[in-house]
Write a structure and sequence with these properties.
The radius of gyration is 17 Å and the shape is elongated. The longest helix is centred in the middle third of the chain and has 23 residues. Helices cover about 35% and strands about 40% of the residues. The protein has four helices and six strands, in the order βββααββααβ. It folds into two domains: about 35 residues, no CATH class; about 90 residues, GMP Synthetase, Chain A, domain 3 (2-Layer Sandwich). The strands form two sheets. The protein has a three-stranded antiparallel sheet with strand order 1-2-3. Helix 2 crosses helix 3.
């Protein structure tokens, strides 16, 4: 049996001059303002679908890396993962670049390299974009 998570966006106005608020309903941790200019120009204090996807991807990847490293017999002491989601008007999301620096014990370099790639391949958010969007991974110990 799976789990469901939900969010709601309230939007008013046209695309270019309108604005909205996205609320994270499942957790109740907050509501965040969104707008087209924040999506295509400078975000300022607003978020965008791409930033929310980046947050989802970086957290999902880190969790999966922890799992894969453990399955390989190592220990993930810490990981810092960032995701950059590129949005091009008229084309959509064209690229996701993951960067991770991980402090891993108990794996040699070859096993570490396999673990970081396996984590990318097994991450559920990666699976959503696989085959649709260019995805890169820059992973190193650190």
């Amino acid at each position: 049996m799976g789990t469901d998570r939900s969010a709601t966006t309230r939007w008013a106005g046209g695309l270019a001059d309108g604005s909205g608020t996205v609320s994270l309903d499942s957790s109740g941790v907050g509501s965040f303002d969104v707008s087209w200019p924040a999506r295509t120009e400078e975000p300022g204090p607003l978020t965008s679908p791409e930033e929310l996807i980046a947050a989802a991807h970086s957290s999902c990847y880190s969790m999966m890396l922890s799992h894969v490293v453990g399955e390989a017999g190592g220990t993930l002491r810490s990981a810092q993962t960032s995701a950059v989601v590129t949005f091009v008007v008229g084309e959509g999301i064209t690229k996701i670049a993951l960067t991770t620096r991980a402090d891993v014990e108990g794996l040699d370099d070859a096993a570490f390299d396999k673990a970081v790639q396996d984590a990318k391949d097994q991450c559920p958010v990666s699976g959503l974009v696989k085959g649709n969007t260019e995805m890169t991974l820059d992973a190193a110990r650190g």
